[in-house]
């Protein structure tokens, strides 16, 4: 049995390769051990998720940290920094001026909530090059192994944009002059998991449109031999503020993909409970939810290695209950969030939600 490969990338926050990998592996093993027949076999064989799946993390936080440090050292208002030091587009600077008027806490710009600002304006191409280098290396050396991709939060936008450029000519590394690209027939991705998918939100809100429209890109499932992605999973939590507005949510009548493909190889998964974290945006929390874990393990693990009896799978879904008693408070808070129609309102909403969750 050949191990499958899972490429994972993160969202906003202080991530490194090992912590990202640990989040995914721990959630997968927690879920595997909920199934009595699977747990017994794993114990007998002394195996775990990582014995079946090679997890390859892609982290890009180092790029943001470098810019964040320059921002701190410049000791300027953030809008001045983006305008004078970073030479950002003036349309984006205007959004920052609006944001400064909404935020009283200047320390916000030294936190990881500012990562979305960096990706949307100054650093998107550097992030994409760093991601694509890993994708090219893994896909070129895959042999006959299945390759899956899991992206979370800001990483969904970065991964979408990276794949779109990779499959439509590639990206040139400005430091070396080398072009990195993928071929949709040769470098096929067996499944793409977009968790807390903000690809459309970031595309629509960004005034300088550094990203790509997910409804009109190559990043979609296809049952034909020329398709780049075999299965597409779109996952969100009902109380995740990142997915409340302008969510990527294709409908059959949108003709985003062929009708047969939409019914058979596109999956939307909506979760509602909290298991390992009080934050509905938490990646480990998403992957620990049986509604996500069951199809995730069935798809990502090598064929035949995760196939619990149907009745056992049903019992697991019914018996695992949400562990966080204050979920109703989160729901009440989310219901009070106004619609966001511009970039500054979105960032302000995220800051307020983080404060609310931290105080629970």
Automatic annotation (TrEMBL):
This is Alpha/beta hydrolase family protein.
């Amino acid at each position: 049995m050949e191990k499958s490969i899972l490429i994972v990338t993160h969202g906003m926050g202080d991530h490194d390769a090992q912590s990202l990998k640990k989040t995914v592996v721990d959630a997968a093993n927690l879920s595997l051990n909920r199934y009595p027949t699977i747990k017994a076999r794993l114990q007998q064989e002394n195996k775990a998720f990582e014995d079946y799946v090679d997890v390859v993390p892609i982290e890009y936080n180092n790029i943001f940290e470098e810019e964040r440090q320059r921002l701190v050292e410049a000791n300027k208002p953030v809008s001045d920094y983006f305008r004078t030091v970073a030479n950002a587009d003036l349309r984006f600077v205007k959004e920052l001026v609006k944001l400064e008027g909404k935020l009283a806490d200047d320390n916000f710009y030294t936190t990881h909530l500012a990562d979305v600002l960096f990706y949307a304006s100054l650093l998107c191409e550097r992030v994409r090059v760093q991601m694509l280098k890993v994708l090219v290396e893994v896909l070129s050396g895959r042999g006959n192994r299945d390759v899956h991709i899991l992206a979370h939060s800001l990483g969904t936008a970065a991964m979408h944009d990276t794949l779109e450029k990779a499959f439509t000519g590639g990206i040139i590394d400005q430091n070396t002059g080398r072009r990195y690209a993928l071929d949709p027939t040769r470098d096929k991705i067996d499944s793409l998991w977009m968790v807390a998918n903000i690809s459309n939100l970031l595309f629509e809100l960004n005034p300088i449109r550094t990203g790509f429209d997910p409804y009109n890109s190559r990043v979609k499932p296809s049952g034909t031999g020329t398709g780049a992605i075999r299965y597409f999973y779109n996952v969100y939590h009902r109380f995740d503020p990142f997915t409340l507005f302008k969510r990527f949510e294709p409908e059959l009548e949108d003709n985003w993909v062929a009708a047969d493909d939409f019914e058979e190889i596109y999956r939307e998964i909506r979760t509602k409970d909290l298991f390992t974290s009080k934050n509905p945006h938490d990646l480990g929390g998403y992957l620990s939810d049986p509604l996500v874990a069951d199809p995730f393990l069935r798809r990502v693990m090598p064929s035949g290695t995760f196939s619990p009896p149907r009745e056992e799978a049903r019992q697991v879904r019914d018996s695992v209950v949400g562990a966080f008693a204050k979920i109703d408070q989160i729901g009440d808070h989310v219901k009070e969030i106004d619609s966001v129609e511009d970039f500054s309102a979105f960032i302000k909403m995220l800051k307020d939600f983080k404060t609310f969750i931290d105080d629970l």
